[in-house]
Give the backbone structure.
Amino acid sequence: MTDFQDIWTYLSSEPLLWLTATLAAYIVGDSLFRASGKKAVVNPVLIAVTLLAGALMLTSTPYETYFDGAKFVHFMLGPATVCLAVPLYLNLQKVGKSIIPMLVALIVGPLTAVGTALGIAYAFGIRGEVLLSLAPKSVTAPVAMGISESIGGSPTLTAVMVILTGITGAIVCTPLLNALKITDYRARGFAVGLTSHGIGTARAFQVNETAGTFAGVGMGANALATAILVPLVLTLF
């Protein structure tokens, strides 16, 4: 047992261990997702997060130690986001034809996301830093954390809310849009990108390439729109 503890102490301090654990957790989640017939409720990100959180709790591993290994995956978020330009370029004509309704949605969507989050939280008595941290929850994590810090919120809390929002959106988007009888993949994708950023965009690409393309556009445009609108909405609170 002493030998095992010594080995674990050594391994747990090595960045490669937690990088491997992150990739393994996602592979497990993705395998279960595919085995379920790609059902939205079996979200691979949710499964991976749950497995990793359980592992960190069981081993009493600080988040900082974990992130030393997982930061390579975090770094790859940037290139992955840039790669969304490829399907956008391939579908540029479709995007151009939909520019007017997209601009309208770009105003209504962020206002609704920010307004409802702040309004509900305010009604339940939430104030101060926690309230401010909720405002940019529907924006991709790096931008959301920057907005949160600039308005006096907690970037860490914002990051948690961003992940929860993305996972929730990825799970409910397909059944909800089906129930609303929205069949245009341009509208479906753009709505998911506006509300569920990168995780929702990944889900949109799993369903349809056009939906994924418009989700990527929505995700990027929402980052800019929210950065402008959040300070304006906060004046009401």
